[in-house]
Amino acid sequence: MKALTVSSLLSLVAAHGIVKQVILNDQTHTGPYPNYGDDSEIKSKGPIRQVTNTKPIKDIYSPNLSCGRDSVPSEYSAPVAAGTDVEFIWNGGEDGIPWPHSTGPIITYMGNCNGDCKNVDPTTIDFFKISEDDKRPDGMWEQATLKNFNTVKATVPWDIASGNYMIRHEIIALHEANMVGGCEFYPSCINVQVQGGGDAYPSDTVKFPGGYNEQDPGIYLPNMYDSQQGITDYQQPGPALYAAS
């Protein structure tokens, strides 16, 4: 029984995870399964871009940091009203396995596609940050709540210009961040059409790759397992959070 339990845990961690569903304007959109390199299994007719597998991105300078491993353009942009919440549902695999990790931030970006998002290279998009979650007041990382199938929410700024945007939502797992290059990145991209917006075009933006450095304070934490220092005042990577005005 003990061996079975250990085996199950190893299998769960090996699977890691993906954004399984996203809720926009009270409509639930289910993402495609990873295609595992089989082009015949490419099915990205919804707003969530398909990836090759559920494993993390470890190379911070890889083009895969933009939207996930070998992500496939989505054919559809889902409507979302400016000023409303987007809800993300993570799975630790394909069939109802919970998210396995518990340490690290959850960050959401948006970037204007300046046209149809299905035709844009995500590495060229200028992303601005719309949400960031790390530790809660009780000391638990928000990421840890995903083990109980909790969802993550981010609000589309009410003042951004209407149009086609790519949402880049990611989990950063820090359990090996005491080593340079130890961070695990799980980015996922969703095509949306913002409706009822204002006239703002956020300027504090980054591209991926390029938005992070492997020795940024929120990515390389050499003292994270030090009993006296650890992770106390976590510094989020990337640009400042965009504030609608």
Give a structural overview:
There is one protein chain. By secondary structure, this protein is mainly β. It has one domain (15-195): Distorted Sandwich (Coagulation Factor XIII, Chain A, domain 1), CATH 2.70.50.70. It has one helix and nine strands; from the N terminus they run αβββββββββ. It has one helix at residues 2-15; strands at residues 18-24, 27-30, 78-81, 85-91, 106-112, 127-133, 152-155, 163-173, 184-195.
Helix-strand layout with pairing:
Blueprint: H1 2-15, E1 18-24, E2 27-30, E3 78-81, E4 85-91, E5 106-112, E6 127-133, E7 152-155, E8 163-173, E9 184-195
Parallel strand pairs: 3-9
Antiparallel strand pairs: 1-2, 1-4, 4-7, 5-6, 5-8, 8-9
Subcellular location: Secreted
Domain Auxiliary Activity family 9 catalytic: 16-234
Family: Belongs to the polysaccharide monooxygenase AA9 family.
User: Uncertain segments of ≥5 residues (pLDDT<50)?
Assistant: 1-13
* Quaternary organisation: single chain
How many structural domains in the coordinates?
Answer: 1
What's the tally of helices? Answer: 1
SSE ordering: HEEEEEEEEE
Mean pLDDT: 90
| Strand percent estimate | 25-35%
Query: CATH class, please?
Result: Mainly Beta
Named CATH architecture:
Distorted Sandwich
Spatial order of the strands forming the largest sheet:
3-9-8-5-6
Largest sheet descriptor: 5 strands, mixed
* Basic shape: globular
N- to C-terminal distance: 57 Å
